[in-house]
Amino acid sequence: MNKNKYLIHAHISDKQFRQVLKCFCEDETAEKTSRKTGISRPTINKLFNKFRLRILTLSKLENPFSGEIEVDESYFGPKRIRGKRGRGASKKIPVIGLLKRDGRVYTKIVAKCNRRQLMPVIKGKILEGSTVYTDGWKSYDGLILNGYKHYRIFHSKDEFARGKNHINGIESFWSYTKRRLNKFNGVHKHKFILHLKESEYRWNYKKQMYKKLLRNFRQNPL
User: Fold this and answer.
1) CB-CB contact of 188 with 115 (8 Å)
2) Is the pLDDT of residue 78 over 80?
3) d(C-alpha 122, C-alpha 114), whole Å
4) What are the backbone dihedrals phi and psi of residue 209, each rounded to the nearest 5 degrees, phi first?
5) Residues with Cβ < 8 Å from 164, sequence gap 6 or more?
6) Residue 133 neighbours by CB under 8 Å, 6+ apart
7) Is 9 exposed, middle or buried (0-12, 13-18, 19+ CB in 10 A)?
C-alpha cells in the first residue's frame, strides 16, 4: 500500500492522484481519465465521487452574498414531460440559483418554487440591503419588505434586459450546467446534487479549481 498525502488508505501514488485530479478539473470523463492514467475505471469512479462529495461539503462553507445579486429558478430532468411545462413540471428537480454579479453562484434544490421554499434561501444567502434582480415570478413578492432593493424583468411581456435590470448571468449558468449534465446521458436523482454542486464549483473557480482542491485534500485527506 502506498502512502498518499491526499488520500487515506490509498492504493495509488501521490503522482497518480494528482493526475486523476487534473483530469477531473479539466472535465475529462472517467473513461478517458482511466485510459490516460492507467488506473482502473472503478477506481476512477470512486475518486471522482469522493471529489464531488468534498465539493458538496465546501459549498456549505461559502460566505453570504452582498451587492447586486441575480436570482432565478430552473428545472432539471427529462426534457419533455407531456402535459407539463415550466414551473411545476412533474418529475423535474427544481433548483434556485443566486449569482453575485462579477462573482460566485450558489444553488440549492427546493421542493417547490413557491415563496415558502425560495424566501428562506434568499434570506439565508443574501445580506439585507443588497440589490436583487429577478423575473416576474410571484414567489419573489415581498423581497422589498425583507430589506432588499428589488428589480424585476418580465419575460412574460417579452422583456429580457433593461440596462442593469436583467438576469442574464444566472441564466448563463443554467445553460452551462445543463450542457455539462447532457454529456452524462442522464444523472441518477440521488446523485444530482453532486453534479449540480460540481458545476457550481467549476463556475466559481474555473482555472483555480485544481490548486484549490489539491490544497484542500492535502490539509484534509479524503
Assistant:
1) no
2) no
3) 12
4) -60, -50
5) 68, 133, 151
6) 68, 69, 70, 71, 151, 152, 153, 164, 165, 166, 167
7) exposed
CA atoms within 13 A on the CB side of 190: 1
Q: How far apart are CA 105 and CA 71, in angstroms?
A: 10
Q: What is the 3-state secondary structure (H, E, C) of 7-68?
A: CCCCCCCHHHHHHHHHHHHCCCCHHHHHHHHCCCHHHHHHHHHHHHHHHHHHHCCCCCECCE
pTM of the model: 0.90
Q: Tell me, what's the pLDDT at 73? A: 95
Of the candidates 68, 24, 81, the residue with the CA atom closest to the CA atom of residue 167: 68
- Average pLDDT over the chain reads 90
How far is 80 from 179, CA to CA, in rounded Å? Answer: 16
Q: Which three cell numbers stand for residue 88?
A: 411545476
Question: Which residues lie closer than 8 Å to 174 by C-beta, 6 or more apart?
Answer: 72, 74, 97
For residue 183, the model assigns a pLDDT of 86
For 177, residues 6+ apart whose C-beta sits below 8 A from its C-beta are 196, 199, 200, 203
Parallel, antiparallel or unpaired: strands 131-135 and 149-153: parallel
| Per-residue pLDDT at 164 exceeds 90 | no
Give the mean pLDDT of 91-96.
92
Interatomic CA distance for residues 214 and 153, integer angstroms: 41
Radius of gyration in angstroms for the set of CA atoms belonging to the chain, rounded to a whole number: 19
At residue 80, the pLDDT reads 54
Mean pLDDT of the region 53-64? 96
pLDDT at 196 > cutoff 90 = yes
Indicate whether 213 pLDDT > 70. yes
